[in-house]
Design a protein that fits this description.
With 497 residues, the chain is α/β, with parallel strands linked by helices. The protein has 3 domains: 79 residues, Archaeosine Trna-guanine Transglycosylase, Chain: A, domain 4 (Roll), CATH 2.30.130; 127 residues, 3-Layer(aba) Sandwich (Rossmann fold); 228 residues. The protein is built from 13 helices and 23 strands. A hairpin with a 2-residue loop joins β3 and β4. The termini are far apart.
Length: 497
């Protein structure tokens, strides 16, 4: 029989419509029969009881807010009826829980590139990175010329990454730009990198070179355009030919799955996100961590309302304290700009059935499964420990995905109920929460998790997903790569001169 609605947790006082429901249909909750008093769109919530004004709405077993006014059983309930419980800064207590994944070692491998410093990449690409937006035109031309000249033979891609920063920035903004660009230069998915500067920017190329620290000087080169006598494009091409020749000789080899690092991200979420795609990523994340690999969860504002779940899973008190700072620092950021901590989700989220930030957060945090938190990173930091890590970054899709890639993730796993074409500078895999999206946007969606509510067991879906991840890590392109949708975006918070 077709599943038309789902009660996610036995403690919930709402159900989620799996398909569009019509007024007069019956919802069965145990021995109680409830007659629908509204038409309810798929992904949206239906009340299982009469709510008094101010009473909490429970979904995923946790409050997602309270009702603004009394609501009868059998009603469609959304952001118009539900008010967030979130407010300002909170005091938190460490209540550690014991985690046992009980997932066997599979000894799986993928075919990656082993770099000189021991790191592993899943792509072997030539990247051209500007230190400042003023040379965006030059880096774009260089990439186009090298692609035309070589056809990209022997490498996975030749890509320029223009951006708008590097000049007229102060304080944290300047540091953020330096960190993200440094992390790109050192990313193992790049087999060769040309860094192109102008010469007069705040992000001085010579200073930036020192900031990077150790790097492979045979594969990473610098060009300061103002110091080139004559045609900087031809000068850049000479350098590119040299480093391209080295990169194209690289070959894939068998690498243990323990070397794989994935970023966990969602955007354009809907009411199915916390039922299908996000729990699927959680199951995969636990599997990868159990194999000795690494997953990274970010989008700190989308942890608000579910943060204590993560805090209690911190392996140590020190990690708990770092997670508290992660959360409260971002709340301070909101408050310092006069913005409420519990602002409602985006219009797309609301249309998809998500009513409050807690509603979104409890769905979002399912992406990281049940593993211990083993690391907490500031924005722009690079991965230091394996296992599940938390990373400071906003909810903005491109900013957060860039941050995940920058910390060292090989792939960004991106769940979506609404769909999006974008990609950052590593493969950005789109996992649909519902089958309609996968059917309508096959040029965007790489994997359909919507089958989970169509009676495919999640365990079976996860097996297929693991196989697909390994194929992608071994070179199979995802849609953003096929379409050449590759961009970066850097977090900005301060003054521009």
């Amino acid at each position: 029989m077709e599943t038309k609605y789902l009660k996610i947790n036995s403690a919930d006082n709402v159900v989620v419509a799996i398909s569009n429901l019509k007024i007069g249909e019956i919802i069965q909750d145990g021995d109680t029969s409830i007659v629908l008093k509204d038409d309810v769109p798929a992904g949206h919530k239906v009340t299982l009881k009469d709510f008094a004004e101010g009473e909490d709405v429970i979904k995923y077993g946790y409050p997602i807010g309270h009702v603004r006014h009394s609501v009868e059983a059998g009603k469609w309930i959304n952001e118009n009826q539900i008010q967030t419980n979130l407010s300002g800064l909170l005091e938190y207590t460490y209540n550690p829980v014991k985690v046992e994944l009980d997932i066997p070692q599979k000894n799986l491998t993928f075919k990656g590139y082993r770099r000189k410093n021991g790191e592993v990449g899943i792509r072997n690409e030539v990247w051209i990175i500007p230190t400042v937006g003023c040379v965006n035109g030059i880096v774009n031309q260089l990439a186009a010329n090298l692609r035309q000249e070589t056809g990209g033979e022997g490498v996975d891609a030749i890509v320029a990454f223009p951006h708008n920063y590097g000049c007229s920035q102060l304080g944290d903004d300047h540091e953020n730009t330096k960190k993200i660009l440094r992390d790109m230069v050192k990313h193992p998915n790049a087999g060769a990198v040309l860094v192109v500067g102008l010469g007069c920017e705040n992000n001085q190329p010579d200073v930036f070179r020192e900031f990077i620290g150790e790097y492979d000087e045979e594969r990473v080169k610098f060009m300061i355009s103002q110091k080139v006598e004559g045609d900087e494009v031809e000068a850049g091409m000479k350098i590119l030919r040299e480093i391209y020749a080295k990169a194209k000789e690289d070959k894939r080899e068998d690498v243990p799955l323990s070397e794989l690092r994935v970023g966990l991200k969602c955007g354009g979420s809907d009411g199915f996100s916390g039922i299908t795609a996000n729990p699927l990523l959680g199951m995969f994340s636990d599997f990868l961590v159990a194999q000795g690999g690494t997953s990274v969860l970010t989008e700190v504002p989308e942890m608000f309302g579910a943060e204590t779940i993560l805090m209690d899973r911190c392996r140590t008190k020190e990690l708990f304290d770092q997670t508290v700072s992660l959360i409260n620092d971002f709340k301070e950021y909101f408050l310092s700009h006069g913005e409420p901590v519990g602002e409602n989700p985006s219009p797309g989220n609301k249309a998809g059935g998500i009513s409050t930030l807690e509603d979104k957060a409890l769905g979002c945090t399912q992406k990281c499964g049940k593993a211990y938190v083993d690391g907490v990173m500031a924005y722009g930091d690079r991965l230091q420990v394996k296992g599940l890590n938390l990373l400071s970054a906003p909810g903005n899709d491109l900013v957060a995905s860039t941050a995940l890639a920058s910390c060292g993730c090989h792939i960004v796993l991106f769940t979506t109920g609404r769909g999006t074409p974008f990609g950052t500078f590593v493969p950005t895999m789109k996992i649909s929460t519902n089958s309609n999206l996968a059917k309508n946007k096959p040029m965007w969606i790489d994997f359909n998790a919507g089958v989970i509510v169509e009676n495919e067991p999640m365990e079976k879906t996860c097996e297929r997903f693991i196989d697909y991840i390994i194929r992608v890590a071994s070179g199979e392109q995802v849609n953003n790569e096929k379409k050449d949708y590759r961009e970066i975006s850097i977090f900005k918070n301060g003054v521009t001169l």
